[in-house]
Amino acid sequence: MPRRPMRHRGLVISRPLTFSQFARQSAARVASVYTAKRQMHIAEVLQKSPPNSAGNKTVKNKLKAKNEQLESSEEEEFDGNVQVDFAFFDPKADDFHGVKTLLQTYLDDKEWDLSGFVGLILEQTTVGSVVKIEDDEDNGIFSLVTTLNLGRYKDQKCMTEINEFLLKVSQKDVIDDLRSLLGKEAHSVGLLVSQRVTNLPPQLLPPLYDGLFNEVSWATEDEPTEELKNSFRFKFYIIITKFYRHKTADQKRKQNVNEEAIIYVKPEDEIFHKLSSWSFEFSLNSPQIAPHELRNYQQTGLVMAVKADKVSTFQQQLQSLIEEP
């Protein structure tokens, strides 16, 4: 069934993020790769169409990033323009290894049916996107965003293992709420999965999430059966992610007033966290390699439950965050 075209999103301009200290640092690192002054244009908005004779890619939304030469002395070695064409694609079988790589530590160091989980993601082509560089021969995956219905896939081994993991790391004050979402309410709960490389331009985030939530909405109308339509009528989203907490958070103001207690790896997680109905943290066992500026921080797991009716607020705040001067 053809998907409705992505809505036009206008001009996105690259600016430093100021929502948190790490977001600003992340933006600076992104700039060092793609050059500091960048204007990203929505070059074209394409309706989903069958693969053409020349290839098997279906572009859902193309973002063009044209980069100007850096003005800082650190980047003066760039003597020309760099242009990168990012494209949003439907997930497909060829993306298996790229998606699996992005999700390698999704459940920390747990051994589980990750291949089966990736298979579910790739089979659900009506909702979800992967981000690539258009016409890249390596076919590398830079980002993934999707949502899977916990009730629909409850009998899959990978989903059973995710549930077990969440219950194991959960905190006592929210475990009853968690059990409810994983159990009797599972058919109205979406597992929102968002993984990406660290230097993905943040300007991609609003259209990426807008596309996801548009597709969820369209699926409630366009799926071929009532059962499938209902599987996208979410009331809650569960998000598994990571952030950095200061090792001496309670005393940090006494030690360094410039260091924040919490630093979010993904800027949108700060918004989700504020909008969540409940959340809990858990310790990570997998080896951690943090940049030097985060030497005083410990990476920590974070699980959040966000009501679906908060999505529009999330989208507005995310757009404001990215546009913040």
From TrEMBL:
InterPro entries: BCP1_family. Coiled coil: none annotated. GO terms for cellular component: nucleus. Belongs to the BCP1 family. This is Protein BCCIP homolog.
